[in-house]
Design a protein that fits this description.
The chain is of the alpha+beta class. The chain is built from nine helices and 13 strands. The chain has one domain (5-316): (Glycosyl)asparaginase (Glutamine Phosphoribosylpyrophosphate, subunit 1, domain 1, 4-Layer Sandwich).
């Protein structure tokens, strides 16, 4: 299968000692390659550092959310302040969090009131009985969560790109080009802290020029994100509709049974490649032992992880 790639990050030098803190993040799968000098590359490394720092004080979920929150705020990725725009030129965000502890999780979709929907998803998980909140009512919940709310404005780069895409009236061609170049620029993280519970967080602006009100895989537990007690956690990126159809993150977690993070990541991408075609998705995984892995069938997927052998974050695209 063209572009099917796989990478694996060992948990220690010897592979024998479980990690106290482990994390891997991604910045979206697509055709956009970039090198170590790019701000996004540095952003991935910083996200890992933020996650590790949070886990030293808290849980794996704290670490995953801290990494994603940094990427939302950075404006470098298709999430939060850097999100892509709908066909109406507006920002609509999706996100979710999940932890293997009690299989707890929640998602939010079509959020237009805060740049940090992943934090809102955690509030929904911890303060309601629901697993999915969408639309305008999210603003009230965001205020209860203590998040800064207000009108979400497109970044200058997103606004410029939107204007270029619609210029000349060739809308269908513009949409196809934008999606081919950018893929699904979701950001996400999976982590394992000293609490021993694999966890995941994900956030996205969705796909360029999407229909208003469209909610993708990132808000859906089992699709864009999943955490399975005793097995691990996974976070997907790519074409949301295809990821939903394959329940990709849940599939990756189930494939870790009797195996490891590498088997989960590889098997999930092999499945979506066979059933839905190439150029559809990427995924990151972590197992109950703290091993992390990534696999994708696109040309590139920015990702970074904490490498205990080097004592620092390592990134690849």
């Amino acid at each position: 299968m063209p572009y099917q790639k796989f990478s694996y990050a060992p948990r220690t030098r010897t592979g024998e000692t479980p990690l106290k803190h482990s994390i891997i993040v991604h910045g979206g799968a697509g055709s956009g390659k970039y090198g170590a000098g790019d701000a996004r590359f540095r952003g991935l490394l910083r996200a890992v550092d933020e996650g590790v720092s949070a886990m030293k004080k808290g849980s794996g979920l704290d670490g995953a959310l801290a990494a994603v929150t940094f990427m939302e705020e950075s404006g470098l990725f298709n999430c939060g302040r850097g999100a892509c725009l709908t066909a109406e030129g507006k920002v609509e965000l999706d996100a979710a969090v999940m932890t293997a502890k009690g299989a707890a999780g929640a998602g939010v979709g079509d959020v237009t009131c805060t740049y940090h929907p992943a934090s809102l998803a955690r509030w929904v998980m911890e303060n309601t009985e629901h697993v999915l909140i969408v639309g305008e009512r999210a603003k009230g919940y965001a205020r209860l969560a203590g998040l800064k709310t207000g009108r979400l404005r497109p970044s200058p780069a997103a606004k410029t790109k939107f204007e270029a895409l619609v210029r000349g009236g060739r809308h269908a061609e513009a949409v196809a080009l934008a999606r081919r170049l950018d893929g699904g620029g979701t950001v996400g993280a999976v982590a394992l802290g000293s609490d021993g519970s694999p966890a995941a967080a994900v956030s996205t602006g969705g796909m360029w020029m999407k229909l208003p009100g469209r909610v993708g895989d990132s808000a859906i537990l089992g699709a864009g994100i999943f955490a399975e007690p005793g097995l691990g956690a996974a976070c997907a990126t790519g074409v949301g509709e295809e990821i939903i159809r394959c329940a990709l993150s849940m599939r990756a977690c189930q494939l870790m049974r009797g195996a490891d993070a590498a088997a989960g990541a590889r098997g999930a991408i092999e499945h979506i490649s066979r059933s839905r075609g190439k150029g559809t998705a990427g995924i990151i995984t972590i197992d109950a032992g703290g091993r992390v892995a990534a696999s994708y069938n696109t040309e590139a997927m920015g990702r970074a992880w904490w490498d205990p052998a080097k004592g620092r974050a390592t990134a690849a695209v």
